[in-house]
Amino acid sequence: MVRLHRWLGLASGSVILVVCATAIPMAFEDEINRVLHPAWFAEAPTADLDPDEWMAALPQGFRSGSVTIYRDGSRLPLIAGRSSAGAAHIAFDPVSRQQFVYEREHGWYMSLFRIHRGLVAGQIGRTVVGAATLIFILVMLTGAFVWWPRKRQRFRDVATMRYRGRRLSRLLADFHKVWGSYAVLVLLVLAVTGLPFAYSWASEAAIAAGGGERQQPGPSVPEALREETRSYTELLERAEYLFPDSERFVLSIPAASSRPASIRAFLPQRLHDDAADVAFLSSGDGELLRLDRFDDMAGGTRVRSLMLPIHTGSILGLGGRILAALACLVAVLLPVTGVVMWYPAWRLRRKRRESGPRRS
């Protein structure tokens, strides 16, 4: 089992090191953006908002996709769409009419995300990351089997590090064993919940765990209710009427008039930040076509929606993200300490074989 743990770790270690190293800053996207882009987090008005006016002031060539409005005024409204350079966000100040453009596709987060998801190698990279994650799960299971004490009195050896009189190599071995034992459960959860983003079968398994039912996509708009002109301001008024207790709205008006406008309403005291009620409305008179309450959605869809907040730790708030980042920091160091433990022994065995008795 020790050899299996060692060789599986050597096979996946370099990929896991990169994946976990990129995950650490990604866990604090908002906190880092508050430093890099403080203007986004300026206080915004919460009444008499006119998103149509904002749309008219957007740069030429910018195609809006959605508008996010924070009802507590803690952040400026965020307009997501595409510019000539790719995906972009515009934070719009309704008072000063200033626009803060962020080419998200070329920003720090998406650069790290492309490395984290697929090593900047497209589908091949995503396959490699997925395979490395599966191997890493086996590494953690075999490591737990190898290092977990068989007797209660030896549990202290796994739970504490000893520093006095220890050489560096021995300290690194202790780190590998002790901190690997502390982090193994968190890392297993992060790895398992990451699989649905790499493999369709894992995503289907998550849906099956919730009963196998999926939420149906949004309805099409009847021809009699289709109009070419749609209003974000009217959509916001409908959102405030339908979801008066919502903390945040995401308003979306697709380009095709056959597709419904939608309101995603994020309410307080939900299980995670991505849990939203969704309303689909016609493009003409704003008739409500369908209302999907998150608590009433298909079980498979709700379970699948849990994967990302669990994977990032955000399901437990800031404390969960810190815990996930610390576990990833340990995972970055495990391959390094593992190689440091393995290499001297491998080199010694090689020297013994080379210096063995030779036949004349």
Explain how this protein is built.
There is one protein chain. The chain has helices at 2-26, 29-36, 51-56, 108-118, 122-147, 155-159, 168-194, 200-209, 232-242, 299-305, 307-312, 317-354, and strands at residues 63-70, 78-83, 86-92, 99-102, 248-252, 261-266, 277-281, 288-292. The protein is of the alpha+beta class. The model has no long low-confidence stretch (mean pLDDT 87). The longest helix has 38 residues, at 317-354. Helix 1 (2-26) packs antiparallel against helix 12. Helix content is 50%, strand content 13%. The chain contains twelve helices and eight strands. It is elongated and about 85 Å long. An eight-stranded antiparallel beta sheet has the order 4-3-2-1-5-6-7-8.
Task: Determine the mean pLDDT.
Answer: 87
**Beta fraction of the residues?**
5-15%
* Dominant shape: elongated
What's the helix-strand series?
A: HHHEEEEHHHHHHEEEEHHH
- Count of helices? 12
Computed over alpha carbons, the radius of gyration is 26 Å
What structural class do you assign from the helix and strand content? alpha+beta
The total strand number stands at 8
DSSP helix fraction: 40-55%
Distance between the termini: 38 Å
**Main pleated sheet:** 8 strands, antiparallel
Low-confidence runs of at least 5 consecutive residues? none
Strands in their spatial order, largest beta sheet: 4-3-2-1-5-6-7-8
